[in-house]
Amino acid sequence: MDKVLKVVPVLLVLGLVGLFLLWRASDDDGQTAVGTGTSTTATSDAGDDDGGATSTEAGGGSTTSSSSTTAAATTTSTSTTTSTTAPAAPALELPPADQAAPPMEPLGVYRDGKLTLGGSVPDPELAAAYLRRAGGVIGMENVTVQMTLDPRVSGQTLRIDVDERFQFPTGSTAFDPEFEALLGLGVAALQLLPESTLVVTGHTDDVGSDEVNQALSQARAQIVVDFMVRGGIPPERVVARGAGESEPIADNATPEGRQANRRIEATLEGVTPG
């Protein structure tokens, strides 16, 4: 009996220790479950950037969502900046100009979708700057540089002559619809080169009186100017000029010569290196 009495307290102590250990294990599992729940919520918020309400409720998830949104905004901003950046121009090696000839300021000629840059500049960097600006309008592959180096010129502005067959029937101001694409390019160039001005000159053949031909040439120039203004170009940046029959480029004695003289000429003036 004494042995039994001695064993009972020991069993009671062991039982209490066991119950305590079981209680501690249960409590640890509960804490682990809470931690897992928090982790699950945060992961769900990070993958649900568009959720809004979930991100606001969970502190950890809100931070992750905010970081993702900021990163996305930064990426979008970088992409936009890259798309509007002018194309890089290659390094240019230009021959020297003939110092015995008169100096020639920079001049571009646009013909058949291609632009040739000629004349002279004081340094190759200036020619590369003009190439970069022109390439931003029509593509670098459509621009050819044939400039020379001449310290006598300033080279700070470039003139571009549009050498296209923009012609009219006799006594008419109606132009062929095929030229609308060319006029659209003129609008785009004026938008991308906001410092420039477009001067449009109308011409006629020598059939009719000087007064009639002067008015007709002015009207021919004006329809081009009106097209630019409808395209969003401020009126002060496009100038209409009528030359009448005073500046022929062909013989008015032939039908072909008269047709060539019934034309529009356009010059983009004041283009800077940027």
TrEMBL record:
PANTHER family: LIPOPROTEIN YIAD-RELATED, STATOR ELEMENT OF FLAGELLAR MOTOR COMPLEX. SUPFAM superfamilies: OmpA-like (SSF103088). The lineage of its organism: Bacteria, Bacillati, Actinomycetota, Acidimicrobiia, Acidimicrobiales. Keywords: Cell outer membrane, Membrane. Its main location: membrane. InterPro entries: Bact_OuterMem_StrucFunc, OMP_bac, OmpA-like, OMPA-like_CS, OmpA-like_sf. It comes from uncultured Acidimicrobiales bacterium. Residues 32-45, 52-89 have a biased composition (Low complexity). Signal peptide: none annotated. This is OmpA-like domain-containing protein. Residues 155-272 form the OmpA-like domain. It is found in: Cell outer membrane. It comes from the Bacteria. Transmembrane segments: none annotated. GO terms for cellular component: cell outer membrane. Residues 30-107, 242-274 are annotated as: Disordered.
